Amino acid sequence: MAAFTSPVKINWPEEWCVPFVFSSPHSGRNYPDRFVESSMLEFDHLRQSEDFLVDELFAGVPEYGAPILMAEFPRAYCDANREAFELDPHMYNTPLPDYVMTASPRLASGIGTIPRVVGAGQEIYSVKLDFKEAHRRINECYFPYHHALRQLLEEGVKKFGYIYLIDCHSMPASIPTPDGGRPSPAMQRPDIILGNRYGTSCGPQLFNATLTSLESYGYHVGQNTPYAGGFITACYGKPEKNIHALQIEINRGLYMDQKSLTTNEGFERLRQDIDTFIRDMSQDRSSLLTA
Question: How many Å separate Cα 221 from the centre of its chain?
């Protein structure tokens, strides 16, 4: 539970030779002691909102010629896939500044830039926070992540003329039940969900090629529902500016035990399939551009 020395990490290829950038904003697992002590949750419960080991599932990215950006800080501490100041006013002991976004569907669910809950609605804090603490976390974590991502995308466009951003996430295996009971088969989520903001964040070639590739490995792939792409996909996906962004959500049941936070026998197979997917996409990159 050591604090991070740097809020972000970039794993670089020996040579950046393919027009891809991969992003993993929710896989950070370095929890500051002060944050853990301030929470009323047990540590394992606090970790329930992690995109568990997504950075390791995509660890092969640099071998195929692209960089991957990863958050070192945990999502429960600060969520980089939100507006910079998307904050729940009920969490704070003083009124928030006018520039803060205080109403959104995400805030209603308790998952703003500084989340109120983890997992299936478990409250993180027993007391209200000081806005200075939120501001410190945003300066310490959020802005460095987006500064690094923006630099990567700008450099990629200069280098290749266009860039593909793949934003990597994981999702609960099923829709949570109100009483916490066993979900019905109808509540099980697909193996993978692709989000392109309903066709606005990337060209159809990238979306269709990703869909076809993942389905060819035997995965059930959903499209945009319920994950159409978060803030990162919406903010940076600008096909008209030659930046194509696609969000990938992976079902945690494929590779982990969600209660014990351990990998299962599916982890290695999934990791190998992701490696193959990255290799195939990097080789077929010239066919992914829209005319």
Answer: 17
